[in-house]
Each structure stands twice: as C-alpha cells, then as structure tokens.
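The records we work with from here on pair a chain with its fold. Taken together, the tokens spell out the fold as the letters spell out the chain. To see the layout at work, look at the sequence and tokens printed below.
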Amino acid sequence: MKFALTLPNRGVLFGVTTPGKMLEMAETADRSGLFHDVWVGDSLLGKPRMESLTLLAGIAARTQRVRIAPACMASFPLRDPVLLAYQWASLDLLAGGRTLLIACTGIVPQVGGALEAAHYGLDNKARVERMVEWITILKRLWTEDDVTFTGRHYRLEGLTIEPKPAAKPRPPIWIANNATGSRDRIERTHRRVARHADGWQTSLSDLDDVAWRLADVREKAREQGRNPDALETSLYHNINVNDDRDAALAESKRFLEAYYMVDFPMDRVESWTAAGSPAECIDHLNAYARMGVHTIGLRCTAWDQIGQLRRVIDEVLPGVAS
C-alpha cells in the first residue's frame, strides 16, 4: 500500500495551517520517500478554501518526486472543460508529468452546496452528466488535435490545446464517490468508474462496506474487459498520532467539524481516523492494507500539522504493510 499526504487547504480559514506551512509539508513528504502522492482539497462555493490548481502549481515547483492531485476535485463539473484541460496540461508540464486528476460530482448537502446549485444552475443529475462529459473532453484534448465533441452539456468543434501534458499518453483520471442508498444505485457509480476512470477513490471507512465496494469496482472493471488490478483504488482518510487515544479522537472531531461545518458522530470519527499511539495507528491502517487498497491518503487532523507529519513519517508509516 502506498500513501498520500492530504494538505488541509480549507484549514487556512480556521487557523490550522498557512500557505507556507502546506508547501513545507509537501516538501517534507517529498523528501521522506514514504509518500507517493500529495493531495489537496478542492471546492468553490460549497466549502471554500485556497484554490486547488493554484496551490498544486506551488507544490509542483517545490517537489521532485511525488505525484500531485486534488482529492477530490469537487469543482470539476463547474469548471469550463476546455480551460481546465489547458490549465491542467500546463500544471502537468510544471510537475514533469506528475499529476493525477481525481474528479467527482461535488454534491454537497450543506448550505454551500445549495449556493453552488443556484449560482451555476445545476442539479445533481447535471453534475453527474457533466463529470462524465468533461472526463471525455479532457482525455481527447490531451491526446488529440482538432477535437470535435457534442454532448448534452458542452459542444466544441476543431479545438486543439497546446502544449499537451508531459505525461504520456495523458495524466490519469480517477473518479471519487461515496454513494449511498440502494445497492443498485451504488453499483451504478462503480460502473461509471469502470467505464471512464483510471482509478477509484472513496472517503468511506467502514471495513466491511469498503471491502464489498472494492470488490464490486474490480468486478465492474472485469465486466468492461479491463484488468481489475490495473484500476487504482484509494481511500481518503485521516490520522492523529497521540499516545492518549481519547485526546486524539477529541481533537480529530473538533478538526472535522470545523472543516466540514457539520456534527461528526464519534463512531464516524473513530472509523475514519487512524488515532492514538503509533501502534494503534499502524493496526488501523494495516486493516486496509490487508484488504488490498492501493493508496491511502492521510490528512493530519491536528493543529500541529508539521509535528504530526513528522510523527507519521518517523513512527507510523515504517510499520504499515507495503
């Protein structure tokens, strides 16, 4: 299992981090050799924060090895796909081909989600349709010239973007989803991943739930004639290293509630956070390693971001199965 460091760029709004601190953490992760990726959050009006592409460009200039990505890009269906393809190609050139685009619908139930829906005139169905169309458009613009495309939400004729991305044949695109409801509905989201994406990400954390979804995503890939092992799978997760587990969970609950502006039940905090002593964090993460998840993203749910990262690097990651 590989690891990603998720930088809490929404945390600049409530004092948990600063732009300089996030760049320092990205450099530390890059030098450690233990992180494969550095991720940042993304949202426009739903959950405001430092804009993701701008932050990723700064990270690209300050790192040499890690892959960089938004996890996930909630604003994806809101952005103009041609402009996004052009911006992303330039970002990938800055990063020397080290980018990964993780797309999602960005459906947010809180007040900010309603504000986005009203401002952009999009319901949830349109977000899903645009996400699929935009993925198709980006793939083509990154690999073809004189692209013509007609969809439900976008049309273009004879367009070429230059320069193309550094990654060949193109930067990978994942889809992130956490669908709830009937099994049929959830399986539809997995089928979408198998048809359109190079990988799947979820922020769900219940072990049994993750296990069946992981198996189903792979089965859907097999049904599409793809090698299921080639479809990358990942978890968006949290960590708080503290020898006092109760204190780690209490701080994580406070962090998550400030970040998402909702009440988090303690059982969800416990499930979604590797918390406690290094040994307790290692045991928590190894459960997902045994499941066969390819990458787990770790966001430090502590106000001492740099101190937490150092403990994760020194005391936790070396003990997790790889």
